[in-house]
Amino acid sequence: MQKLAELYRGKAKTVYTTEDPNYLVLEFRNDTSAMDGQRIQAFDRKGMINNKFNHFIMNRLEAAGIPTQMERLLSDNEALVKRLEMIPIECVIRNRTAGSLVKRLGITENQVLNHPLFELFLKNDQLHDPIVSEAYCKAFGWASEAHLAQMKKLSYQVNDVLSKLFDDAGLILVDFKLEFGLFENKITLGDEFSPDGCRLWDKKTLEKMDKDRFRGNLGGVIEAYEQVAKRIGVPLAPFSDNVSANKKI
Ligand code: TMP
Q1: Containing domain of residue 71, as a range?
Q2: Which segments constitute the SAICAR synthetase/ADE2 N-terminal domain (predicted)?
């Protein structure tokens, strides 16, 4: 499947159309952004690691019955995905306190929540992705009640699958962000799941192994991403098309 035209350039990925209107190519760049894109830095190998990380996680989620947009890897930095009609909302699940929750409530980090939280944020960099409610989504038509219910259900399912996967690898899945869209009228997981969009702490040392290393200038960003990928078994060897040749659409 060939890339045709650039459709959208995000902060870390570029999206291309293909000859098939139902499919897109996601290109994972080395760029890493913080502060809603005000701070950007490129890290060697990051695009490759996140592309393979995302492909691995999406395959695991598909195997658990969660519909995702993933089709297959195309190269070290590219994946073929279904074209979704994106819902402009970010779904966040939190198992422990961290990040914006800590700032918003003035509480300490690393409190285990009695029940995982499900939060909604409007995708809008200029407004710094404000937190919104299900009522806002319905009132402004960002997502219907039925779609929200499905997004919530799938987010909790993702949490169950991935909390276990990371726990088995000695990591705590603190929180993460998901984006959904519609494919043939069905709520489908889109965007990416990588250390850019979640918090992962080492179970023993509580060392941060995710984008907080970049946000907090802690150094060792790529080393942490690579270590997480290796711990959960993401194959990082150079891409070979042989594996996916029989899956071509
Ligand atoms: P937060 O603590 O900044 O609200 O983020 C919660 C989790 O969601 C954290 O793992 C980072 C992720 N996230 C993104 O990747 N992008 C976003 O735009 C937002 C709001 C959260």
Answers
A1: 3-84+229-246
A2: 7-231
